[in-house]
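Hi R.,

Quick one: here's the Protein O-mannosyl-transferase 1 sequence you asked about.
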Amino acid sequence: MLGFLEEPVVVTAKISVNLVALTVLGLISRLRGLCYPRAVVFDEVYYGQFVSLYMKRIFFVDDSGPPFGHMLLALGGYLGGFDGNFLWNRIGAEYSMNVPVWSLRLLPALAGGLCVPLAYQILVELHFSHRAALGAALLILFENSLITQSRFMLLESILIFFILLAVLSYLKFYNLQKYSAFSGSWWFWLLLTGVACSCAVGVKYMGLFTYMLLLATAGLHFWHMIGDQSLSNVSLLYHFLARGLALIIIPMGLYLSFFYVHLALLYRSGPHDQIMTSAFQASLEGGLARITQGQPLEVAYGSQITLRNVLGKPMQCWLHSHTSTYPIRYENGRGSSHQQQVTCYPFKDVNNWWIVKDPGMQQLVVSNPPRPVRHGHIVQLVHGITTRYLNTHDVAAPLSPHSQEVSCYIDYNISMPAQNLWRVEIVNRESDTDVWKTILSEVRFVHVNTSAVLKASGLIGASLPEWGYRQLEVVGEKLSKSFHQSMVWNVEEHRYGKSQEQKEREVELHSPTQMDISKNLSFMAKFTELQWKILTLKNEDTEHKYSSSALDWITMDTNIAYWLHPTSGAQIHLLGNVATWASANAAVLVYLCLSLWYLLRRRRRIYDISEVAWQLWVSAGGICGGGWAVNYLPFFLMEKTLFLYHYLPAVTFQILLIPVVLQHLSDHLCRSVLLKNMFSALIVAWFSWVYFVYCTFRPLTFGQLSLSPAELKALRWKDTWNILIRKQ
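And here's the predicted structure, written out as tokens:
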């Protein structure tokens, strides 16, 4: 029974020395001297703010992309014991002792270092020689721009790592397809492809480009499988479902999980709350939640409410009125009603309070039991402090003459009767009998007499002049069938009115009553709102000193100064290896020309290379050339401020194409031994040039050497490069 113990247990493993050596070299190049400089470097000033907010559990919104990359950076801070206390306000500021610089920069550096062995394995899985794979890895190892971007608290190296991992995983899965379908390793690499794609998209939306490329590749491969008569219909269905699960369902679920963790971590109110809806704000600890705790849920006749405009950008504002009236005549000579002004005010104020009144009754208090207001009910809105009724009529608004003026009605005893009836329409209702609810209901107010809709036009236009205290214009929009969030309002603060007397009513506005509002929005509701804000919230793009166009990247006519030593000439720049980038451009041109030549010849039934070599050429071009194209060409369509680092995922794929082209030229165009030897000698000379350029620009990559003005001028190989030289 115990006979198996008579022989020793032996475990054998194949270790690739190339892979181990490349991994060690990659990690050394990225990790060595990681704490230098101990100062804020370029976009660390941007990402560091979010890391601090994670440490303090304070909610934020970043319109640059999903939260997974930020969480990874925050993980580095957490592992280093960072408490979040640092003022991220200036590039070059020295880090205080409580900031774990090495820990914060660790994960980007690890990701950057691991890209070196990933490049090697990708070429191997594309069925190229180990020499070609070694060349690809060394080109990544000696690429100055990738080293620079990996050594700081930035996201591009993490993005590139997950992109390359996704490509490698899919290639391993595909190569197992023919002989080991549905095996454990087959499932592992297929699932890892989906996970890596989701992580890439979760770091930056640029990851979508490679994800779409792999989905298209998987779709093309499955299309070829459909034509394989050896596969049954049931087998094809299993293959289809497996790919759908691993490449679509699991990535979507993982993407949702990033937001779930993000929202679970950031449960405290913060400076970004104001762009979210009142319901979202009320779900956070502190802030609006402290104000709304204990408020009644259902709006009833007699309720005292504040109305917040749902649009919330460029700033949040509340329906507001005050004793001042519209001027009799505006600057352009147009007349007004001279009624009491109604505006949208971007601050909390006692003049933001309104009372919901039943038009058929005079009382301004909530009855017992309360009579809730439902969708379609007619109400009057009475301004709490001045007791005048919200009104609109056929008078042009001050800044929007195509719309109606909104005012609080003053009876001047002239032929201008009050028109103060409004129909409540709950936009997000589930049925036509829904009750108007605090925070949760989004409502439109439709004027009964004119069908105009109450709208905060100042949020999408200009503010009122001095006579309107620079507050935002509110109008009656005549086109009631149109829809815009500026027409939608929600109740933010809510009290049940108890006193009919005006002075007592003002006192009771601040007393919470009755039942609590449920502050727990569902995760999907919070995710949907946050995702929409990320996609639609656009910071005002301004020209940056180091911004560039996509055309500048190809020829590397631009650079970015990341850091400058305060006293010496030491500095760090984002600059690529000129030799590698020029060679990558040449590789793309050679690949396109050769592909066109082969296609024309094949059309004429002339086959210069074997079918196996042709399929290898096409598949490698689809991954490397296609990866470059999908990560580069979309930037020509983007209206945003662009920087050189946006090109790094694309140039990584472009670099992988270099050894593909070189091996193809050596195998199929150098037919004699002499030509092969000469070509090999040229490759050695070329690679020596690549290494020479890497060493030349190494001082600007690591920034550890003090450079004289003469040395800095010698490094300015292009007039368009902004190398910083101090005046003597």
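The first helix runs from residue 17 to 31.

Cheers,
M.
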